[in-house]
Amino acid sequence: MKTKSGIPVSPGVAIGPAMLFGARGFRIPQRFVSVDAVESEIGRFRGALHKVAQAIEENQHVASQRLGEEYAAIFGAHLLMVRDPKLLGEIETLIRSKCFSPEFAASRVFRNYAKAFQNLGNAYLAERATDVFDLEKRVLHALLGEDRPELTHLTESVVILAHNLTPSETAGLDREKVLGFATEVGGRTSHTAILAGALELPAVVGVGGFLADVSAGDIVIIDGYRGEIIIDPDEETLSRYKLVLEQYKSDKQRLAKLTSAEAITTDSVRIQVLGNIEFPQEVEHCMERGADGIGLYRTEFLYLGTNQIPSEEDHYEAYCKVVKACGNHPVVIRTLDLGSDKVPANETEFVSSCDNPALGLRSIRLSLNNLPLFKVQLRAILRAAVYGDVRIMFPLITSLLELRKAKMVLNDVMDDLDEAGIPFKRDVRVGMMVEVPAAALLADQFAPEVDFFSIGTNDLIQYTLAVDRADPSVANLYWAGDPSILRLIRMVVDAGRTHGIPVTVCGQMSSEPRFIPLLVGLGLRHLSVTPIAIPEVKDLIRHLSSSQSEEIARHALTLDIARDVENYLRGEVDRIYPDGSIAE
Ligand code: PEP
Ligand code: MG
Question: Which of 188, 224, 284, 549 has its CA 20 to 30 A from that of 233?
Answer without folding.
Answer: 188
